[in-house]
Amino acid sequence: MIGAMREVIVAANWKMHTTPADAGELARTIAARTRVAGVVRVICPPYVSLAAVRDALAEDDPDVAVGAQNVHHELQGAYTGEIAAPMLAGLATWVIVGHSERRRDAGETDDLIGRKLGRAIDAGLRPILCVGEHLEDREARRQDAVVDAQLRGAFGALGALEGGDPAAIRAAGLVIAYEPVWAIGTGRNASGADATAMAGAIRSTLADLGHGPAADDIPILYGGSVTSVNIGEFFAEPAIDGALVGGASLKPDEMAGIVARAGVTAAARGAAG
Ligand code: PEP
Hints:
The protein is α/β, with parallel strands linked by helices. 43% of the residues lie in helices and 14% in strands. The protein contains ten helices and eight strands. The protein has helices spanning 20-33, 50-60, 100-105, 110-122, 135-139, 143-159, 166-171, 192-211, 231-235, 252-272, and strands at 8-13, 39-44, 64-68, 94-97, 126-131, 175-178, 220-223, 242-245. Strand 1 (8-13), helix 1 and strand 2 form a beta-alpha-beta unit. Helix 4 crosses helix 6. The chain is globular, with a radius of gyration of 17 Å. The mean pLDDT is 94. It binds phosphoenolpyruvate. Phosphoenolpyruvate (PEP) is lined by residues 13, 15, 179, 184-185, 223-226, 244-248.
């Protein structure tokens, strides 16, 4: 039995691509090409395109959720250029937190990411928390320790906030994305076996962080150069519940292939459950 028959999720991270003028049309095209039973679909455009994507999907396919790519760790204040979680009301229902590109470019620490997670949960946003090791960590075989520390750092910071209770975190629909940094945007992906081993390590840390056996109910996505060609390797792994897709998520053909494969897993889980 796979957790409480965990959802199958494909989330698109458009990163710094699209404009409000073209994002709605791309979202509409992807939505139309990915209508597959049982798959939760999420599109995360840049902030400025959230409204365009929301409007396009509301008309065409309200089943596709809209997510933001980041959120600030404070509720309001003198933070030029930042967006607070409550400001996303009506624009997004999901949010990515702790993406490795933000850890790299904005110096985000686990503590800061934990506070973002708390703000997201308090605002009723469904969080996708990204974790993953660098190449040198994997080469030194310390990937599990790195990801364990990322999770403990983030959830430690979250513990101080209202949303820090494990049951509240699960009720918020927490999703973890395992994204080895060396696989993001490089065309080099981890193996299905690597992803499964890490999913086991993540669930064991989550169990230790107060989730106990319910850690099994938390969806874990793989991310890192996912394409319609390699997605099968990840969906063949029962521990993996979907994908966070970057580059390929801007290509409707790729998204169609990825979500079609996700649908096979969703159907199998539905039949088993
Ligand atoms: C990502 O942005 O989370 C990602 C995994 O990117 P890519 O698929 O391009 O490697």
